[in-house]
Design a protein that fits this description.
45% of the residues lie in helices and 14% in strands. α6 packs parallel to α7. By secondary structure, it is an alpha/beta fold. It has a single domain, classed as 3-Layer(aba) Sandwich (Rossmann fold), CATH 3.40.50.720.
Length: 268
């Protein structure tokens, strides 16, 4: 997408880790579309990834922030506005992590302290990002907040574990936040429910390769790629979608509304 649909827009992109990350693709596309933005991730994640390389290629800076810390988020907004020269027009929340899934805990043997951490990192962080942004008057009128989610919020998938609860909470928070920030501040917020995507985080789910192939064969248009998701995010940041808010938007090639495909039937 080479249209300058984000020219003069300022943003913050959470969650870029490496060049397989959807947030990484969003940053590359947003740069091409004329946006100025800062990049952020948790300090521990930054040590694992190559986010500084991305910042250099996009002509921007990285501001470390723990998305579960309101103090870190306040500093992130402050430094971003100083660097970008004004209020924030768009935010990408591409954050998700489950200690239970990472450590292979069975769903009937969850560590509840880890579950709380999953919810805090993967869902409550969205509320914190929005609440801090509003309280500090850091988000511009008609700003757009987009969070990435997955259909496991509505359906059961083996291996996805307590991330399903986190995504359900994320989508519920989006609806509740959307009403309040819409009526009071003309700010919009939506979630994008993306196809299974070969990212560092996604591929960590047990059996992901089979998961990916099944969804690809179930979807009339096939799985949506990370690059295609980035294009969709840019549209949601732009002025073309000003009146879309509180929605969970499926970006999955039709998987979400397909009962069964002929390709799957032929294999049974």
């Amino acid at each position: 997408m080479d249209y300058k649909i984000l020219e003069n827009k300022r943003g913050i992109i959470f969650g870029a880790l490496d060049d397989s990350s959807i947030a990484w693709k969003v940053a590359e596309q947003a740069h091409k579309a004329g946006a100025k933005f800062t990049l952020t991730n948790a300090p521990v994640a930054m040590r694992m990834g190559k986010i500084k390389d991305l910042a250099e290629s996009c002509g921007t800076i990285v501001i470390p922030a723990d998305a579960t810390s309101t103090e870190d988020i306040e500093n992130l907004y402050k430094e971003s506005m100083e660097y970008l020269g004004g209020k924030i027009d768009f935010v990408l929340h591409s954050i998700g992590m489950s200690p239970n899934v990472r450590k292979g805990r069975d769903y009937l043997d969850l560590n509840y302290d880890w579950l709380l951490k999953t919810l805090d990192i993967s869902a409550l962080s969205l509320h914190k990002v929005v609440q801090v942004g509003v309280k500090n008057e850091a988000l511009s009128e008609w700003a757009s907040v987009v969070a990435l989610t997955y259909i496991a919020a509505q359906r059961s998938f083996p291996g996805y574990g307590d991330m399903a609860e986190a995504k359900s909470t994320l989508e519920s928070l989006t609806r509740s936040l959307g009403y309040h920030i819409g009526t009071k501040h003309n700010i919009r917020i939506n979630t994008i429910s993306q196809s299974p995507t070969w990212t560092t985080a996604g591929s960590g789910v047990p059996g992901f390769d089979k998961f990916f192939n099944y969804a690809d064969q179930m979807s009339p248009l096939g799985n949506a790629s990370a690059d295609e998701c980035a294009d969709f995010c840019l549209m949601m940041f732009s002025d073309y979608t000003r009146k879309i808010t509180m929605q969970n938007l499926f970006h999955d090639g039709g998987f979400s509304f397909t009962g069964v495909s002929q390709a799957i039937m032929d294999k049974i």
